[in-house]
Amino acid sequence: MTGAQAADVGEWPTVTQSLINDVLDDAAIGMFVLDKEFNVAWVNDTLQQYFGLNRERVLGGDKRAVVRDCIAPVVDNGEQLTETVLATYEENTYAERFECRVTAGEGREARWLEHRSKPVETGTYAGGRVELYYDITEQKQSERARREEKTQFESLVDAVEEYGIFMLDADGYIRSWNAGAEQIKGYASDNVIGEHISMFYSEDDRAAGVPESNLAVAAEEGSMEDEGWRIRADGSRFWANVTITAIRDADGDLKGYAKVTRDMTDQREWERRLRRERDLTERLIETAPVRLAIFRAGGSLERINSVARRELGIDESSVRALDFTAMNIYDVERSSISSENHPVSHVIETGEPVYDRLVQHETPDGQQRWVSLTAAPLFDEDDELERIIVAGKDITELKEKERQLERQRDELRHELDEVYERVTDAFFAADTDLRFTHLNDRAEELLGTTEGNVYGEYMRDSFPEFTERSFKEQYERAMTTQKPVSFEEYSDTADAWFEVRAYPSDTGLSIYFTDITERKGRERKLKQYEQLVETVWDGVYVLDENDRFVLVNQAFCDLVGYDRDELLGKHATLINSETVNEAANELETEISAGKREVGVLEYEFETADGETLPVETRFGPYEYDGGRIGRCGVARDIGVRKEYERKIRESNERLEQFAYIASHDLQEPLRMVTSYLQLLERRYGDTFDEDGEEFLEYAIDGAQRMREMIDGLLEYSRVSTRGDPFEPVDLNDVLDDVLADLQLQIEETNAEITVGELPRVEGDASQLRQVFQNLLDNAITYSGDEPPWVHITADRHSEEWVISVEDDGIGIDPDDQERIFTIFDRLHSREEYDGTGIGLALCQRIVERHDGEISVDSKPGEGAMFSFTLPT
Hints:
There is one protein chain. The chain has about 850 residues and is of the alpha+beta class. It has 29 helices and 32 strands. It is rod-shaped and about 190 Å long.
């Protein structure tokens, strides 16, 4: 029972004799009228009903006795009621008001009553008192229901730990605070209640008025959603997803706001990493210098990288129309490999990988290439064959010069979604018997039902899969332990994967579930790409914009001798010098400017055991996190190649030294022989008969040819040792000089010379002039009976120029095409064509000094095309 004195006694009407006689018997309010002795002068029927009194017995009786004997026994806490009522009779100067509860009994119902009384100041009962009793039972029941509803809601809100849920007043000051808000923001409720929400915003946002703007938008539009940085109690930042909803009363007046906050920092970072890895993977696939193809389980071609398209002569637009049988390959005996024996067919039939299958194929330009094929299966979550990854490593140079090619990797990962009503997560509630009590819109959408259809229904009846899978077990564990559970499960009903979080309370479960089907798919792809990268023979590495390792494969770890954990996050100078980093950055700049397609460097790794390892790296830039530039590449051990080159270099140096000494030492005796032969011819020429003159002519001619051969050998030996330093050379100028030197020969033979635009290269101008001079001279010399026709062109292929000199002369038998580059090896007799047989050998040596190659494509009678390459 509660009571309080009323200060304003004038609010009660004056009780008069006429009021008692005419009105009170019909009033719906229980009423006592007491005279100045506090005897009962009037009691109405309603009061008899409320307290179970007999009107006739109490009329004229002492009200004090009535209170003690008739009223106090039928109310809760009757002693306090008696004390309060009797106190009013002692002074009878103030109004009284309190509540009491009547218990159920014979002739009465249990009910709540409000007591109101005041002195009677005028009229028949002046000096007495009037007491009114109002039935407030329904009001009490309504207040109780509201308290229970509020308690249940607060319990539900407090059970949610992943969301900060709190209330604001109309000015943005905090009025409530749940456990999720404390966990996310780091403030206890005592520290934030009464504070303004701007305390969670950054200084810049506060200065820009963001908190006030958000509240204004919510007030105008009903709700608003925002994402941005927020500040925790310890000063750290977190990325928040915030929903603010305006709360209005029945008249539409703003009463405050409900605010829901979720910490999205991890998800935001994961999404950024996912985009970076996806972009990185695409870059690795396209920049990998190995042939890479992905086939579907049926054998059709799904994807092929640019290297494979170029080498196999496949147009990108026709990729999806091809299958593995379109890739013509041959075994080591040059016999065509049938579709049944194809590596892809083997994987499809057996599910087992094929490693290092040695095959041959012919490129679109007719080159025969050796390739080591590896075909690996990729399985889905049901262990069914889903993809076949085929990697082709060109080992042509390895078989010839013991060199290798490389290959690489791709990525993908995970994503989370928003939660709770106005956030986009699905949510439903269940009681302790796992019966549905609430579904939000997202849950209705995913489960294909409505709250009305399943309210009060058992989960096992509406969705049998909740008992067939792990749902029921996890929910019961949460209820038993009263601890939240989180798990992932597949739903047949929704045909989707869900991340489920269940929060228990005394009244049941609050269950949130997020559709993670796409994330599951990306995780499966990521696993496949990780398998792909780990099948690469060479070391794959990725650096961020600060030259720190963010990804390495096992092959790279094996190269440098460090574990993966020892490399990730470390600067690249752990294994190479700062000079190498600067050179790589310069090449990246050229790649970005379109001056080259990929960067190539040779240098030495510093391995974990303190040794050095010669490597060649091919790399390129990649973009991540919206504009940040990193570097991805492939590293190859070239120790064997370097040793081979060293031996060749030493051998060449000895050969050059020998050739120079031999040719130099032969000059003097040859000059003496020539001088004496000429002296013999002058002094005794008239005495020789016809045979003697012929023999002497043979001897002089042989000595002259010997001199030419020695001069050629000397020139051949000096290509590497006596050449000029490389500098920028305009090949157009070089060719103009050569054509000027050959002008007389061109006019005499009526030769037609056409020239395309030639590039500017780094090289030795005098030696490149010799190459053009020898090739043009040969084209004119071996033109046959018709006037010579010669066409000179230049084409850029990747990172090299291909210079071609084409003629329509007598041509060369394919069996003899390698002989022509051998020193002193001639295809024609001196009677047919003059020369020493050293010109093309000299051209080859000069081109090799410029890191190029020279070749010929010809058939007898169809002319010849000599081509040589020079680096760009």
